[in-house]
Automatic annotation (TrEMBL), chain A:
Keywords: Oxidoreductase. SUPFAM superfamilies: PLP-dependent transferases. It catalyses: N(6)-[(R)-lipoyl]-L-lysyl-[glycine-cleavage complex H protein] + glycine + H(+) = N(6)-[(R)-S(8)-aminomethyldihydrolipoyl]-L-lysyl-[glycine-cleavage complex H protein] + CO2. Its EC number is 1.4.4.2. The lineage of its organism: Bacteria, Pseudomonadati, Thermodesulfobacteriota, Desulfuromonadia, Geobacterales. The glycine cleavage system catalyzes the degradation of glycine. The P protein binds the alpha-amino group of glycine through its pyridoxal phosphate cofactor; CO(2) is released and the remaining methylamine moiety is then transferred to the lipoamide cofactor of the H protein. Residues 6-440 form the Glycine cleavage system P-protein N-terminal domain. The glycine cleavage system is composed of four proteins: P, T, L and H. In this organism, the P 'protein' is a heterodimer of two subunits. Pfam families: GDC-P (PF02347). This is Probable glycine dehydrogenase (decarboxylating) subunit 1. GO terms for molecular function: glycine dehydrogenase (decarboxylating) activity. It comes from Geomobilimonas luticola.
TrEMBL record, chain B:
The gene is gcvPB. Signal peptide: none annotated. GO terms for molecular function: glycine dehydrogenase (decarboxylating) activity. PANTHER family: GLYCINE DEHYDROGENASE (DECARBOXYLATING), MITOCHONDRIAL, GLYCINE DEHYDROGENASE, DECARBOXYLATING. It catalyses: N(6)-[(R)-lipoyl]-L-lysyl-[glycine-cleavage complex H protein] + glycine + H(+) = N(6)-[(R)-S(8)-aminomethyldihydrolipoyl]-L-lysyl-[glycine-cleavage complex H protein] + CO2. It comes from Geomobilimonas luticola. It comes from the Bacteria. This is glycine dehydrogenase (aminomethyl-transferring). The glycine cleavage system catalyzes the degradation of glycine. The P protein binds the alpha-amino group of glycine through its pyridoxal phosphate cofactor; CO(2) is released and the remaining methylamine moiety is then transferred to the lipoamide cofactor of the H protein. The keyword Oxidoreductase applies. Its EC number is 1.4.4.2.
Amino acid sequence: MSDSHYCPNTPDEIREMLAAIGVASVEELFAPIPAELRASSFDLPEGMSEFELFQRMQSLAGQNAQGMTNFIGGGYYDHIIPAVVDHLSGRAEFYTAYTPYQPECSQGTLQALFEYQTAICRLTGMEVANASLYDGATALAEAAMMALRVTNRNRLVMDGGVSPFTRQVVRTYLDNLDVEIVEIAPQQGGTDRAALLAALDDQTAAVLVQNPNFFGTLDDLTGLADAAHAKGALLVASVYPISLGLVQSPGAMGADIVVGDGQSLGNPLSFGGPSFGFIATTKKYIRNLPGRIIGETVDKEGRRGFVLTLQAREQHIKRHKATSNICSNQSLCALRGLIFLASIGKQGFAELARLNHDKAEFAKSTLAAINGVTVVNRGATFNEFTLALPKNADEVVAKLLQSHTAAGVPLAAYYPGMENCLVVTVTEKRTKDEILALARELERAL
Amino acid sequence: MKLIYEQSVAGRPGVKLPAADVPRAADLPAGLLRDEPAGLPEVSELDVVRHYTNLSRRNFSVDTNFYPLGSCTMKYNAKVLENAAGLFSPYHPMTALLPTGERFSQGSLGMLHELGRWLAEITGMDEVTTQPLAGAHGEMTGIMLIAAYHKAKGNRKKYVVVPDSSHGTNPASAAMVGYEIITVPTAPYGDMDLELFRQAMNDEVAAVMMTCPNTLGLFNPHIREIADIAHAHDALMYYDGANLNAILGKVRPGDVGFDVIHVNLHKTFGTPHGGGGPGSGPVGVKTSLVPFLPMPRIVKKDDDSYALETDRPASIGRTANFFGNFGVMVKAFAYMAMLGREGLIQVSEQAVLNANYIMSQLKDYYDLPYDQTCMHECVFSAGKQLRHGVHAIDIAKYLIDRGYHPPTVYFPLIVKDAIMIEPTETESKATMDAFIAVMREAAAAAEKDPEALHTAPVSMPVSRLDETKAAREQNVCHMKW
């Protein structure tokens, strides 16, 4: 029992406990496990001290390229994170608690998640939201399954402007179910609206779109919502939350279910996780929402309090008849999202979106002025846009990476025929000087 | 406490943003432009700090209270793990997916690869995917892998078998993948009834999902026999890794017949639960399932560098956008590296010792439906107390007033008024003795003054809440602007 990490009992205490149990050794407690079932191997390294560990972790992190200038997005975005987000979400009362099953001693988490649900409803223009899902991709898959339940239909129409990773997640989720997924190939970085409308029929449960889409293009979804509703289908929109400081809310455009990834709200890049997924809908579909929902109520003395509500939808009660298998969610990441939004504030959030838009528009016009470079998107864009280069974009990106500039996401791997195209992302963190430096490097590489 | 929205004052500025160093762009077209800003709070930074600091004080947590919540493994979360995760916060996941990008992400990819190797060794599996984002997500991924295996072999499978003591996520995950559920009852010896299991098995069963030790905290000695029966029907064995913390270095699921496993890193490997997440649920498989693992796969090349493999025609695809909950995995990796081989074995030994100690000290006070040596948790029933009209939930509320987070109550569903206690290895004898004393007091109070238990808790910011009202009114969003 030497070399203990976080196991506090002394040899004397262990002896006392064994005596109280009535066994001679700890090993005796493992007697119910027959000898033939015992581990054949457990070949792991020796342990180390906290100090040695931190040095090792520093060395490991140092093997990643340092000081990368990010013009890449693809679902994860390099945004500012106010210091209060780390400090407040780093309160151990938040991060070392569990799911608030006992509401009286969990009002901190419960009220915060109620405030989070409120923020998501207000951003998206919807009436109800849950307390978070895993990430934006699984949120779209859950929304698709929710639409199948609500409509009792088995066909989905998914726009090709949805992130190729996310489309793969949706296909993987539905692969074993009796569901047809029709994907509509994008045209010039936008939705092929005519093809999408033609694909709608009486068995279509939902239209799945992303706004802005993977190419950065914004779309007014109003007409699409009307067309979907006319066929009895739902409109499911995946949105980039920062855009909602400037862009019309999906609720106002007629969406029935709104999802997205909350990483850009106060969660670090952290090599792709953790972040959180959000899902919001209208009141009439609340019982079909997956995951945990916090509701307001009162205690015996009439004081306001918050509880997990409508739990009869969930796996721990409904088992195989639950609306989803989800159990743990991304509560702490959702809390970070809430603190981010509260600290930036109403006007600040609108300004932040505006800043992203202004910087991206400046970058777009600067880069499009390079000889042979053109903008692919036909309509308006938000903080991402797609360029057609006069040569293969993979080669250009590889070349710029050598000077630690991640110039954008080349499309060859995701959209056949777009080998020369590059999606460039510009957030509020990129300075005018960095944008001009990108233009110079890109020009040299062409 | 007021909501943050109720503290809003029009015009109060928030955090200052980076400078606008470029010209203002033209407005978006009218149909795309938001007509009014979203109704976020207008509060000062100090308002935000005070509000959320004070809210946090309305939580019980591992750092403030003993938290013996059975099945959830609320062990101490080492602070250095938070620091370690912070080291990786600036790295963008897309970097690795760019042409030649792996070269610029060797630290992150190397960590994931090593973590996978360690998890494979710990569980006795051949390969691991780190993509699943939580335990239930791992279950769903694992069942998808099993479905792909059967599809590739041309097997026609329809059912997944689970014991009635299983976590609700097991049947829910199998149902998400389109399977029907066969539930096998628990025998008097505290685990899935072997004879009823044998009868339930048929050639249309795709998988058997087991938690071992199970949710009663008991280890199933027939596990090898169960696996043999399943395999005879070409059904695969799924190991729910929720209770892996009991058997580190003692049993490897891969050695005893399991084909697929998920590991809850936030339980066994000491990463914080975050008030309900993020978790992380890597999935390990035997060789026969490797072709179906999600993309991209991280592979180690001959020159010891790490690369991504995306050309995997038999893969189920993706269950998340990138590499999983990376930050959580950094913490689990650091935890394993720090504890090492001996330290991890000690985790299970001390967790099992602590649970048996509590069981021995309370079994004269509470009913113990399955009276045998337990693993990392013990399950009592409030049967004695029910005679006085006191339910498990009343005992739970009494504990809150005494400064303890309650054990899990009402689960597993097969025990009436269950009280499921999991102390974990990080608690001292002194802490447990104090808890034991209060549990005994609760048992005494149930006989002498049941009403006091019914009205508890009285010391919290709120007393028992009206859950019916919450469900009826469905007020889940503060709509007053």
